[in-house]
């Protein structure tokens, strides 16, 4: 097969790989190149210019001990499996295989279905070949892979290979699998860690992802973490697990609900999988951004749409990536993405409604901007001129196509258009607006290319996932006081506690009773009134006693009763005149008071009022010392350190 090839690339590659992988010396490979020079011409000179033999054969290793590299050890057998350059060798070998397959396709020997410009997908050890389901094609592919394995040493593992056919007789499928020596399988198959199928994925196809969540949760001792610690793990680890899937597939709502249930239970209760637990704070509040009063946990539904929108941006940018070339060849270079083509493209269409709100074109020649579906200066015409749009014959014409026919645009519309006065009036308005734009903008409809622009990214105009996500999650009514919690110089668990306190979302007895819990409502601090957030931190007898002790002690001049124990903490936080230091002090005081309440309720342990006050003052003074608002002397007189 090689001797008959008119292209000498294959012959030279076979000889070079045979010499390298058999461990020949650098002189042998140099001799091979010099001997082939008359036949290879500029190809060998290009190879010599890139110095491949020096990179592949003159290899030295060093042993590092205590960070110090030793003397170089020259490898006598060249590059082999396990060497640092072996991945580079692997890529070069598969590049040779890809060119070989493409050459067979171009010569008509290897028949492939209509799949665009690539007859194969080669990524590391995950390889897919597309071919017509005939026995002769299977024999040819098996011969190619066998020869390639003999040359490079990368042999096919038939036990880990599967044959998947579409609209093919079962007997023929069995014959093809026998010729290839592999097994038969059905869609969906796993490629690069993702389920690959031609149909819409069901919720069962995401079971592997859910199992990854459960496996990750089982490895953590989350019951020993505070809510603030679990929040960090949730944002950094759990919320990032489905990102790879969400960048390709539109998640079913049921799958998002299952993932949210796992994340919600982990946040509030730790490792209690499968058990129904109480969640005081609604999940819709948790996934709000912090500036809107939430905890800033990622909203998977909104983030899924954001990641899919990024593909629309890549589709409209001038860069010619491989996947864009593939889709363009597959769909005859059509300028739009239609929902009828595939399930994935239907998902992109759903995400395009968000995308179109903040996307526009800086028009040059008008070849990229779609007349009806893109904002090229007049907004989305399919919404602004709906009557005229209903008569359009071509849904995806470009702006340049319309302007070329602007003197007589009627052939672009239905023959019924002249009978509709509203549509005719809209057509005249569109023509007038285009002429106005052309007169006011010198770059409009010139020879330059259209430039996509993302409005949410300022002057750069480049799409970013964060800007799109913030646009989805933005709310016209931001919380006025909850965002003031997060810049405070207090531990994160204090911030979470204050966030729940200000929303009346603590697990007080009155809140539990509203959730259906049958519990006697009696405050454990004063044993007289019913328990609520307002009672604990404003009306309780213990709270009043602590406030009186601070007011009557002249030695506590660095604090005031209104700072440590305000009568209305909600008004204190909402007031713009309240300093950050004041909010930090009462946040610490209230957290210690809540901790005392929990100790009395669950552990039957209580402290004397003076000891509790001493703990509060010590913690607050230590906080002021750390933030630079207290002196060392003041801290020494306040009592022992909290640790």
From TrEMBL:
InterPro entries from the UniProt entry: DNA/RNA_pol_sf (IPR043502), RT_dom (IPR000477), RVT-Znf (IPR026960)
Alphabetical list of PROSITE patterns matching this protein: RT_POL (PS50878)
Residues annotated as domain Reverse transcriptase: 1-196
Pfam families with a match to the protein in the record: RVT_1, zf-RVT
Domain of life: Eukaryota
Protein name: Reverse transcriptase domain-containing protein
């Amino acid at each position: 097969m090689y001797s008959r090839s008119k292209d000498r690339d294959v012959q030279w590659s076979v000889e070079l790989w045979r010499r390298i992988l058999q461990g020949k010396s650098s002189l042998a490979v140099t001799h091979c190149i010099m001997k082939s020079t008359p036949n290879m011409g500029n190809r060998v000179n290009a190879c010599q210019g890139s110095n491949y033999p020096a990179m592949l054969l003159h290899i030295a290793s060093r042993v590092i001990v205590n960070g110090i590299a030793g003397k170089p050890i020259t490898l006598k057998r060249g590059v082999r499996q396990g060497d640092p350059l072996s991945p580079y060798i692997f890529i070069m070998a598969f590049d040779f295989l890809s060119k070989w397959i493409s050459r067979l396709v171009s010569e008509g020997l290897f028949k492939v279905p209509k799949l665009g410009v690539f007859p194969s997908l080669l990524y590391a050890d995950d390889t897919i070949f597309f071919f017509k389901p005939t026995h002769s094609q299977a024999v040819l592919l098996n011969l190619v892979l066998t020869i390639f394995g003999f040359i490079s040493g990368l042999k096919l593992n038939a036990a880990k290979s599967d044959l998947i056919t579409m609209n093919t007789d079962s007997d023929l499928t069995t014959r093809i699998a026998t010729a290839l020596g592999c097994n038969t399988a059905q869609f969906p198959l796993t490629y690069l860690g993702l389920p690959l199928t031609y149909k819409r994925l069901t919720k069962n196809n995401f079971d592997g992802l859910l199992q990854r969540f459960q496996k990750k949760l089982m490895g953590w001792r989350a019951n020993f973490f505070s809510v603030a610690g679990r929040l960090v793990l949730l944002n950094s680890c759990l919320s990032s697990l489905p990102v790879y899937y969400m960048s390709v597939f539109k998640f079913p709502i049921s799958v998002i609900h299952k993932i949210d249930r796992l994340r919600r239970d982990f946040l509030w209760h730790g490792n209690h999988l499968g058990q129904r637990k109480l969640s005081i704070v609604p999940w819709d509040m948790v996934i709000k951004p912090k500036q809107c009063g939430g905890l800033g946990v990622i909203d998977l539904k909104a983030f899924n749409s954001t990641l899919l929108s990024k593909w629309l941006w890549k589709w409209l940018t001038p860069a010619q990536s491989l996947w864009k070339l593939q889709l363009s060849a597959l769909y005859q270079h059509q300028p739009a993405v239609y929902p009828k083509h595939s399930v994935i493209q239907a998902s992109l269409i759903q995400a395009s409604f968000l995308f179109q709100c903040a996307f526009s074109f800086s028009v040059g020649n008008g070849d990229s901007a779609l007349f009806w579906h893109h904002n090229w200066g007049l907004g989305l015409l399919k919404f602004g001129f709906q009557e005229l749009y209903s008569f359009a014959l071509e849904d995806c014409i470009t702006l340049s196509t319309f302007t070329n026919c602007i003197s007589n645009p009627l052939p672009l519309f239905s023959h019924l258009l002249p009978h509709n006065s509203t549509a005719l009036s809209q057509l005249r308005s569109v023509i007038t607006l285009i002429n106005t734009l052309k007169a006011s903008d010198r770059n409009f409809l010139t020879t330059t290319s259209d430039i996509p622009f993302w409005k949410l990214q300022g002057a750069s105009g480049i799409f970013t996932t964060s800007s799109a996500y913030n646009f989805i999650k933005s709310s016209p009514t931001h919380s006025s006081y909850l965002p003031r919690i997060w810049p405070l110089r207090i531990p994160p668990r204090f911030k979470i506690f204050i966030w729940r306190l200000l929303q009346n979302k603590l697990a007080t007895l009155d809140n539990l009773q509203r959730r259906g819990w049958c519990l006697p409502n009696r405050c454990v601090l004063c044993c007289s009134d019913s328990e609520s957030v307002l009672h604990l931190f404003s009306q309780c007898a213990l709270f009043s006693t602590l406030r009186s002790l601070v007011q009557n002690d002249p030695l506590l001049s660095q604090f005031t009763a209104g700072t440590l124990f305000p009568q209305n903490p909600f008004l204190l936080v909402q007031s713009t005149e309240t300093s950050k230091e004041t909010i930090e002090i009462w946040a610490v005081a209230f957290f210690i008071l809540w901790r005392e309440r929990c100790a009395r309720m669950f552990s039957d342990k209580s402290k004397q009022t003076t000891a509790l006050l001493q703990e509060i003052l010590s913690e607050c003074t230590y906080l002021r010392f750390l933030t630079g608002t207290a002196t060392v002397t003041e801290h020494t007189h306040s009592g022992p350190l909290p640790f």
